[in-house]
């Protein structure tokens, strides 16, 4: 299972990196994620939350982007429940918890730094065992887009409360 997941994440990251660099950073964060093909759940959630125009905006934004596998690892029914119109506020809160204003490259990170998210909470960066954002590992850093940067993560991070 671990090897299969690692291969899937590596493939997803490679596809995303290829999509990002093929266009010379001419694509925004949303289009870069769509083209990668491994962020269908994230893109569907961004659409359901009404955040497409925001993430296509000027930015810059730093997005910690969970893969489809990361969403699939949530308890059964979680994603479907979040995509219901009556849960839009909760979905927006979760998605904006994955976004930090500004363009933060991996070289800008320091151990135990706090980064305030668009959601209003903050995430802690841990550099002791690779790069961690809360409990998520960054599997591919620094995928540049025209309006920011994407760091691919292997876990959906959830705000407290």
TrEMBL record:
Record's SUPFAM superfamilies?
FAS1 domain (SSF82153)
Listed InterPro entries: Adhesion/Biosynth-related, FAS1_dom_sf, FAS1_domain
Cellular component GO terms, alphabetically?
extracellular space
Q: Which UniProt keywords apply?
A: Signal
Report the residue ranges that make up the FAS1 domain in this protein.
26-157
Q: Which domain of life is it from?
A: Bacteria
Q: Which SMART domains match?
A: FAS1
- Tell me, what's a Pfam family for it? Fasciclin
Calcium: is it a keyword of this entry? no
Q: Which residues form the signal peptide?
A: 1-22
Spell out the protein name for this chain.
Answer: Nex18 symbiotically induced protein
């Amino acid at each position: 299972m671990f090897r299969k997941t690692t291969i899937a994440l590596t493939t997803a990251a490679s596809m995303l990196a290829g999509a990002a660099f093929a266009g010379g950073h001419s694509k925004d964060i949303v289009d870069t994620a769509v083209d990668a093909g491994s962020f269908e759940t994230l893109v569907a959630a961004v659409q359901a939350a009404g955040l497409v125009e925001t993430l296509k905006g000027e930015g810059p934004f730093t997005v910690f982007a969970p893969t489809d596998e990361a969403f699939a690892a949530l308890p059964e029914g979680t994603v479907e429940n979040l995509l219901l119109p009556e849960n839009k506020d909760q979905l927006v809160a979760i998605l904006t918890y994955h976004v930090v204003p500004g363009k933060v490259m991996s070289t800008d990170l320091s151990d135990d730094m706090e980064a305030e998210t668009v959601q209003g909470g903050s995430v802690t960066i841990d550099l002791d065992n690779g790069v961690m954002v809360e409990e998520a590992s960054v599997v591919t850093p620094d995928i540049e887009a025209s309006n920011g940067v994407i760091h691919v993560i292997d876990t959906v991070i959830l705000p407290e409360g």
